Automatic annotation (TrEMBL):
Taxonomic path: Bacteria, Pseudomonadati, Pseudomonadota, Gammaproteobacteria, Kangiellales
Family of this protein: Belongs to the Lgt family.
Protein name: Phosphatidylglycerol--prolipoprotein diacylglyceryl transferase
Transmembrane segments: 18-35, 55-75, 95-112, 119-139, 176-193, 205-222, 234-254
The organism of origin for this protein: Kangiella sediminilitoris
Annotated membrane topology: Multi-pass membrane protein
Amino acid sequence: MEFPEIDPVIFEIGPIALHWYGFMYLLGFLAAWGLGTYRAKKPHSDWTVEQVSDFLFYGFIGVILGGRIGYVLFYGLEFWADDPLYPFKIWEGGMSFHGGLLGVIVAGWYFARKTKKSFFDVGDFVAPLVPLGLMFGRIGNFINGELWGRQASADFPLAMRFPGDPEGLLRHPSQLYQAAFEGLLLFLIVWFYSQKPRPSKAVSGVFLVGYGVFRFGVEFFREPDAHLGKVISWLTMGQVLCVPMIAIGIYLVVKAYEQPEQQSNK
């Protein structure tokens, strides 16, 4: 199967161009805003619609700064060594989910202090809003023909050739696997789990475990970064970064159910 020809630019008006990748980021934040607003309007919620909008503003900054800094530290140190200005050249690409997650955690900590909420009240409210944004982001990667998968067998029905692949191999469309598992399926799990009152920390823990497990698995189909390859034995950098996520998530769930009187799903 050949990669479908998709123009990465939706439309251009003079010097202004709307790219599919940017549009997918926009859809992700709109989805988070819509879901968060729905939750905030539910009876007995201790969130307001204005607080949802405020958090998303801080979260957006956290995603951009954390995603870029994380990419440079986790994946691009050699590029930084060659070019001191590399961290600022966002237009050249390079964003890390794990870095973006750390950025959102910092944003959540700041927002919790500002609004006098507990950190996990914020985390448990925000966790179900994240996966659809991840889904849209991976669809954007697919449209851009980037972050493709490892070589697939010729008789695999989804195997395709990506235009930027210098080897011209049939590969797994791993971006779509990530959109399905780390995005849609994770959203369904965390969203429906959080529909009922849960102990504080539990929803955050389920999100971390779910993402970590799905990302770890999909990495077996995703082509490792060429300049890194496998970083520890057969593990990719993405898998290495998922291990502490899974461990922390399990710890949070266990601690949550040791203190079930602390309810959180507002």
